[in-house]
Write a structure and sequence with these properties.
Elements lengths: L1 H7 L9 H4 L21 H13 L4 E6 L1 H23 L5 H6 L4 E6 L15 H22 L14 H10 L15 H10 L1
Parallel strand pairs: 1-2
Length: about 200
């Protein structure tokens, strides 16, 4: 469950093995879970997360996420030594355990359907989101044609129009709105004229 799992510990932290990861590669979304974690934004929450990691002997993290997840990882990394010192001072771990776990290694992978990160061809999640959008468009297109109707589709992407643009190009959409290029005045008349054609 992301940082929530680190903070809560217990059954949230378990070893992945051949059986637990078999037959998940084709699944969309995240099989391991994801959650927003308000507690991890506090030092007390990160202290609990550090305690749980040390308890399991984990000193390597692979963080897949967006701005919040990767910013949290950077803060966690920068505080790691201080968190261990605090755990020793409070008697939660021994100095020997702190020495054995003195270094936290983090690999950050951008997981964002927006595909809005410089330096990568495609962020994790974009491809499966595009495939899902195209499946829906293919299904709706036959209905639209048989009933001679216009359909309006909204796709995810918050402030980034990548998914809308690429799926619009791939499906031959007649009209497209993306945040990077707001419509100009009079767009309503132009759109009606286009649809009328």
């Amino acid at each position: 469950q992301g940082y929530e799992g680190l903070v809560e510990g217990g059954d949230n932290i378990k070893q992945a093995n051949w059986l637990s990861v078999s037959n998940i590669i084709q699944l969309g979304g995240t099989v391991i879970g994801s959650a927003r974690c308000k507690a991890f934004t506090t030092r007390a929450g990160r202290l609990r997360a550090a305690r749980n990691l040390v308890e399991h002997g984990i000193t390597n993290l692979c963080v897949i996420g967006g701005d919040g997840s990767l910013t949290g990882a950077d803060i966690f990394r920068s505080e790691w030594a201080g968190l261990l010192e605090e755990l020793v001072r409070d008697g939660q771990i021994s100095e020997e355990v702190a020495r054995e776990n003195c270094r936290l290694n983090i690999v950050g992978l951008v997981g964002s359907i927006d595909n809005d990160f410089c330096g990568t061809d495609m962020t994790i999640g974009t491809d499966s989101a595009l495939h899902r959008i195209m499946e829906v468009i293919d299904a709706i297109t036959t209905t639209a044609q048989s009933h001679q109707r216009t359909f309006v589709l909204e796709v995810m992407g918050r402030h980034c129009g990548y998914l809308a643009l690429v799926s619009g190009l791939a499906s031959g959409a007649d009209w497209l709105f993306i945040p990077e290029s707001p419509p100009e005045d009079g767009w309503e008349d132009l759109m009606c004229e286009r649809l009328g054609e």
